Amino acid sequence: MTSPLTASAAHERWTPRLWGTLLVLCAAMFLDALDVSMVGVALPSIGSELDLSTSTLQWIVSGYILGYGGLLLLGGRTADLLGRRRVFLIALGVFALASLLGGLVDSGPLLIASRFIKGLSAAFTAPAGLSIITTTFAEGPVRNRALSIYTTCAATGFSMGLVLSGLLTEASWRLTMLLPAPIALIALIAGLKLIPHSEREKKHGGYDVPGAVIGTASMLLLVFTVVQAPEAGWTSARTLLSFLAVAVLLAVFVTIEQRTASPLIRLGVLRSGSQIRAQLGAMAFFGSYVGFQFLVTLYMQSLLGWSALQTALAFLPAGALVALSATKIGAVVDRFGTPRVIATGFTLLVIGYALFLRISLTPHYAAVILPSMLLLGAACALVFPSLNIQATNGVDDDEQGMVSGLLNTSIQVGGAIFLAVVTAVVTANGHGGSSPQAVLDSFRPGLVVVTAIALAGLLVTLPGLRARRPQQTVLVAKSAQEDESVQAERETAEGRVAVRD
């Protein structure tokens, strides 16, 4: 269903209510991304006050990722079926309550539980919010502008999470947990007034309960297995059996989706080359950045002896560059098309990671670290909005939640998988001793892997550059059989019209 606000969105000047709706959605996405990165710097303080072991501390991060990455597919389809506004607002309320709980608890298990609940609620707000935008703003320049602002807020939240965490942890780690609560509450109150109502999707096939159960179980088990693999061992019996179980569950899930009348994920959407490139690009982009941030944080605090605040400020130029570009990327995409913008961003990403390989035990911020941060900020500003635009273009309104959930799942699963890979590589190369130089030498292979992941993302994007007219988009076919008259028309036009992937 198209929102009643779409007509207003079609004009160059947006109404105050339209801006308000976008602001509410941006606030929720900002909080989702903020929570992924903000807890990292606070972990030492949390462990000290609550007397938690390193393995328990890991679950404060992993619990959020498990809930977020494991339930995104269910969250996206639920938004389509039960109403995007309803799902978004309920999940945002749960997020606020879980944030309050996380800041008040005095035990590790309760803190981990609050983090899991926050991840779970984010798994519903993220795809619901993105699908509200794509069904409210008409496809084309208007939607591109809205998505560039929205996704830039997400990237800014992730980048600024370290900065805010460094500042707040100086006072108390509890503030890092409590900060999202009032922001989420304000966004919830505003959302009740501003977000347009949407109808449930009406399908005769009903709900895909088996697909929802199996799909959710497979994603939860996959994320759990990847998160635990570095500790349990990649070749351990537990890890291998878990991966085998994931493969079996995914095979059952695909079978269910092929046979049900109302699938959780319509597999035909993945016949689109641009859709596949968007999903794989999202995995490579976020996975490489999470691995990079992990290594850089360790490098700055463990080897250079920088404080949490100094480390946070070192990332500030990247976050600031992303924030300043919020209103400009949509116009860039309109002019050049998503494949070119994404390829350019991945190129900057590869160069930025490669330049960081020059690090040493002597900090050279202006000459070594800053250039990488600026390149990464520019890459993030270009790639993240463009991936969202490419994934949602040409998709019917009643499947926007599904595609949004699929994209966010790719982002989170990619982050979990590649962070685990980078961690394993660093651990495998960490047997040269405990001296600062030996530790630094163990980081370099991890940075090489991060660079290789970004390079793979670039290679995935390159086939899309064959498109010659970025103004056109391909609609994702809802059936393998096409109407004969449409097919004849297409064959007649072939050679005269270049259609973007």
UniProtKB/TrEMBL annotation:
GO molecular function, one term: transmembrane transporter activity
Principal location: membrane
Basic and acidic residues bias locations: 487-501
Subcellular location: Cell membrane
Pfam families for the chain: MFS_1 (PF07690)
InterPro entries, per database record: MFS (IPR011701), MFS_dom (IPR020846), MFS_trans_sf (IPR036259), Sugar_transporter_CS (IPR005829)
Alphabetical GO biological process terms: response to antibiotic
UniProt keywords, alphabetically: Antibiotic resistance, Cell membrane, Membrane, Transmembrane, Transmembrane helix, Transport
Transmembrane portions of the chain: 21-44, 56-75, 87-105, 117-137, 149-169, 175-195, 207-227, 239-257, 278-300, 306-329, 341-359, 365-384, 405-426, 446-465
Keyword Ligase in annotation: no
CC terms in the record's Gene Ontology section: plasma membrane
Membrane topology: Multi-pass membrane protein
Region (Disordered) residue spans: 479-501
All copies of domain Major facilitator superfamily (MFS) profile, residue ranges: 21-469
Annotated PANTHER family: BLR6921 PROTEIN, MAJOR FACILITATOR SUPERFAMILY MULTIDRUG TRANSPORTER MFSC
Protein's recorded name: MFS transporter
Native source organism of the sequence: Streptomyces himalayensis subsp. aureolus
Species classification: Bacteria, Bacillati, Actinomycetota, Actinomycetes, Kitasatosporales
